[in-house]
Each structure stands twice: as C-alpha cells, then as structure tokens.
Model the fold of this input.
Amino acid sequence: MQRFFVLCAIFLTVMLSMPDAHAEADDNLTENTGRNAALLPFNDVVIVAADSLDAAQKTHDAIVKGAQARKWQVTQNTPAAVRLHLNVRNKHFVTVDTKIKGGNVDIVYVDSKNMNYEKLSSGQEIIHPKYNSWVKYLLKSARAAAKKAGASASGEADSPEPGN
Done:
C-alpha cells in the first residue's frame, strides 16, 4: 500500500511540473483557427503597361470588366477608384476598394460578412482563405480584359500575385 502512495505522489509531481499543454492548445486556437489565412496585400499589381497612353483609364476599364466577369458588383465608380462588392450564394459577402495608379492597382479590404475576418492583437489580419482566391481571380480577369482590349502589361504573369 505504501508503494501505491509513493507512485501516486511521483505521478502527481511529474504531472504538476509539466507545462499545461491544453492551455497552449487553446491559445493557438484563438490566434489561428485553421479556417483562416492571412489577408494578403494586393498592392501595385500591374494590369496595364505603365507606358501605355491612358494607362489609368485602361486599368479602370479592365477592373470593371474583370469584376463583371467574376460577378463582382460595382457599387462606387470614379476614374481613380472603384468599390466592388461580391455576394457568394447569399452567404458570403466581401467589399473591396480598388485604387488605380496608372497601369497599377491596389485592392484594399473594406468589409465582409461570414468570412471570419479578424484583426489579431499582433496587428495581423486574417480571413477565410477564399477571400485571397477571389481577389486573385478578379485580378486575373482584369488582366484578361486588358489583354482583350489590347492594353495588357507586357511580360506579366497570367496569375497575379499580391505585392507588398
């Protein structure tokens, strides 16, 4: 019987001295749930060659046509900026601003619903991974529209990658 108590005491000592693995796991869940990805920056993405005449207008037109091809709705429209809204199956909603600078565009996250958007205490923004895919497809469609109009950016890859 004494041996049993000694073994129990050793077991409790070992268990109490170990870090709380369960608490660590809970902390990781609050920081990254596995359903989210980093919200990627889409800055200075080339749509039209900067040296082309009326690059800003051609970029604007390509963004609008690319957005329409991907079922994004234009909700505000100026020569230097276009606000777009995407409704996916009446379940997921995304709003972005496009800021046109010559032949380049920045796409800036504005708002969303049912996309698990969160700004972490570290300052990092996370969102459902489909957001990044939808924006990449939007940019790809804008480039295709520019190419069809004869205003494509020479030497650019077909698959847009986010900038810094």
